[in-house]
Amino acid sequence: MKYQISKARDAGYVTRAPGEYMGSNQYWRWCTCNAVPFVVVEFEPKAKYAFVELDLYNTADEGFSAKAGYNILQKILGQPLKPKSNFYMSPILIQAHVAINSAEALAKYLFQCAVDEGICLSQEELIQRTLTRLGSGECVKAAFIPFECDVYPSSLAIVRTREFWDQRITE
Q1: C-alpha–C-alpha distance, residues 167 and 120, integer Å
Q2: Residue span of the structural domain in which 122 resides
Q3: Number of domains in the chain
Q4: Which residues pair with 40 in a beta bridge?
Q5: What is the DSSP letter of 86?
Q6: Which of these, 12, 120, 138, lies nearest to 58 by C-alpha position?
Q7: Residue pLDDT, tens place only, 102-122
Q8: CA contacts within 13 A on the Cβ side of 171
Q9: Could you tell me if residue 171 is inside a domain?
Q10: Helix ranges restricted to H, 16-77
Q11: Cα separation of 32 and 170, whole Å?
Q12: Which whole number is the average pLDDT over 141-168?
């Protein structure tokens, strides 16, 4: 298992087959302990599509900025998406089913976006922020409202508009 974690650290993401979580869970724990974005690519052999996920639940409190979120949305919309699937976006969780040949590039892109935004925090930093917020009565402020989109032409046409995105910005 150490080999898989080492390989995932070098790549910026871990791969797994559906239902095989042991290695990816170890990598997730490593990411949590080391303030690194957790990205996973899940696929079956000979599959046409892969599931790509960025999970920052234990490493970021506010998550991506509105600008980064918009850029990520455009990147996802530029991928060959699995028909009749869906994708989900929030400031700290992104999930999409994309063509197998674009999954690695999307995984690396999501990882790099999180690194570039500097949003991953150590557990100590997250706890300190939480305690500070509790003491001052503040709450976490996300830059945009999470949403899910079904991969149908009519739904994608709506999500592609700037108006759709602007309605989700909370900053």
Answers
A1: 26
A2: 2-166
A3: 1
A4: 14, 53
A5: E
A6: 120
A7: 999 999 999 999 999 999 999
A8: 13
A9: no
A10: 22-34, 66-77
A11: 27
A12: 95
